[in-house]
Amino acid sequence: MVIEPAYLTKKIAELQHSFGIYCRSGMITYVGGFLTCGSFFTLTAIAVDRYLVVHSGTKYKTIVTNTRVTWVIITLWVLSGTLFSAQLYASRDLYFKLTAAFMVGCFVIASFCYIKCFLTLRKQKREVNTFLKVNSTQQGITNVQRYKKSIYTMLYIFLIFNLCYLPYLCTAGSAGILGESAAIWGAESLSAVIILANSLINPIILFWRMKEIRKAVSSTISIIHYSQGRHCAGKSFSNQQVQIQHLHIKHLNNI
User: Fold this and answer.
1) Fewer CB within a 10 Å sphere, N or C end of the chain?
2) Residues 6+ apart with CB under 8 A from 1
3) 121 near 152, Cβ under 8 Å?
4) What DSSP assignment string belongs to 14-62?
């Protein structure tokens, strides 16, 4: 929500030849690019995690430990910083080739994980439906609904993930093979805006699909509203106390 306006400001300043605004917004955009790169690797790691959740069963806790998760996160962010900063010390063609190669690898891994999860969950849903024909219980019906919702939520996120990152992948691949041109510069700018929009779209999808997140947001808003109400009431009470003290002092002076 901050990086995309900064990126648009940078591009407008570039067109208007406003060097000061271009540099300030460019610094914010550079940090945002690093965070976007890290988010891309993180989304791939989440896809692998969901694959392990669905397919490893009871072995999940022994495979995914806190120590391993910590090292994976550190490795991903170091890799993100190294890859994103490559544009500072390497040629633009090499940078685009590296970016395209890493993006293709992440797309293949994420696609494999999500497709396998989708097929497995759909198979489990059929098995549960078969079981319900023999033993119809409220718990079983709830599980079917939960499976169905998780399948479609996963599918929505996967499709948005592809739609947002594929344009930049095509642009990076074209720039690495054909070299840069005015058309590729324009495509790069447009695809970067689409990538930055993904960070806004994903929370909206999760808020729409997951009841737990809606409850958490509602509770947070209620707590903030209650805290502000108490603060205003306390401030009003303090003002009344000050006025009473002034009246008391004035009364003593008159005596």
Assistant:
1) C
2) 199, 200
3) no
4) HHHT-HHHHHHHHHHHHHHHHHHHHHHHHHHHHHHHHHHHHHHGGGHHH
pTM: 0.67
Computed on alpha carbons and rounded to an integer, the radius of gyration of the chain in Å comes to 27
d(CA 155, CA 147): 12
The residue count of the chain comes to 255
pLDDT tens for each residue of 50-93: 888 888 877 888 888 889 999 999 999 998 888 888 877 777 77
CA 114, CA 135: separation in Å to the nearest integer?
31
3-class secondary-structure state, position 190? helix
Close Cβ partners of 8 (under 8 Å, ≥ 6 residues apart): 193
Is the torsion defined by CA of 237, 241, 244, 250 positive or negative? negative
> With helix as H, strand as E and coil as C, how does 111-178 read?
HHHHHHHHHHHHHHHHHHHHHHHHCCCHHHHHHHHHHHHHHHHHHHHHHHHHHHHHHHHHHHHHHHHH
- The Cα 186–Cα 196 span in angstroms is 16
- Retrieve residue 144's tokens: 């079917």
Both structure tokens of 67 = 């120590």
Contacts of 60-67 with CB under 8 Å at 24 or more apart are none
Per-residue model confidence as pLDDT tens digits over 211-249: 777 777 778 787 777 666 555 555 554 555 545 555 445
Measuring CA to CA, how many Å separate 252 from each of 27, 239, 247, 249? 62, 20, 9, 5
Residue at token pair 């208007």: 16
